[in-house]
Amino acid sequence: MQRTSLHALCALVAFSLPLSAQSTWHVDVNGVAPGTGTPLDPYTSIQYALEHPSTVNNDVILVAPGTYYENLNFNGNGLALNQGVTVRGSAGAHRTVIRPAAPGHLAKGFLGGWQWKLEGLTFTGVQSPGDSALYIAFASSTVEVQDCVVRDNAGPGILGGYDLYLTNTTVTRNALGLAALRSHTLQVLNECIIWGNDVDLGFHNFTHISWSNVGNSFSGHQNTINADPLFVDPEHGDLHLQAGSPCIVSGIHPSGADMGAFHFDANEIPDSELYCAGGLNSVNKRGRIGFHGSSSLSGGDLSLDTSGCVPNQFGLFFYGAGTQLVPFGDGNLCVSAGGAGLFRLTPFQLNGFGKGMSAIDFEAGTTGQGPGALTAGSTWNFQFWYRDPLGPGGSGFNLSNALTLRFWE
Predict the structure, then answer these.
(1) Among 44, 168, 240, 386, which is 20 to 30 Å from 87 by CA?
(2) Does 260 map to a domain?
């Protein structure tokens, strides 16, 4: 079944249900709460939009880029919404991230008789093995998940009931990728990647799988593979496809689509890149820079880390807008002012393993205010400087490699 067939089937289901006028309600985590749902005065919470009495059949909830900390209940305002709504990330899954605000399922729904669509969203961060990222138990409902990402959850990625359609969706790095709640459910999987989970598929009842990369081996399904999809940077949530990925099938696929949530683009610029090289130090290692969290300002979970440095010595992270490659100390200076200046973070002492970490504050200090503020749309380059009294070059200090980060809402 190609995507056109899937959409035609969903349209047929929708046509059989009573229609109402469609409204689009806007949500932006950076707005002023509670908002009125308009483009100039958006709601600030997806759940608020779901529960608002103005949200009725066929409406679209359009979610602006950002990281949203909330547990979603797709039962909405409890009305008999015979068709449900579409919840859509306006900038796609890579820029529209939903993380849990409390224990429990990240997104759930129980009431039936609806047609729901989730589009261009990322669901991530569930900490309990007993909770799911998407718990879809709508009775006698049709739920379509398209262009979404479900990743890095300690519990199941998707537990689906009744009629579940997944199109161009990536499910990876979860305890369980995808499973059915009941034996009589209709589940259709098209152009998806279900790979790299502890268990990719649990109990399931797929009536059709095509043009998908599924970790569990299948037979009798059209153009289904089991291979490393070659994500760009899965550890940091970048699930775009590298050149050479077996999931790049747009040249032969009838719909022109690749597998997974992101169509391959050779010109895609990643959110993070490592470059340059650290100098060899007195413990015969090279300092390395890395990060945890994301470069999302609304996510607020970014920290820089370093390893491979000299144990118990002092060091600091610094950053600038430009790049260079100049010998400096026992290593290379890979960051330049770039017209904006060089900025330092607070110095600290490395631990006994030569490792350290600094949290980034997007609201205060050098990184939150003034010319060194990390703002949405800005690009900065980071490096770690550390003392090395016994270093091979005799300068008494060294540097790590360098990291470019591109910041977004």
Answers:
(1) 240
(2) no
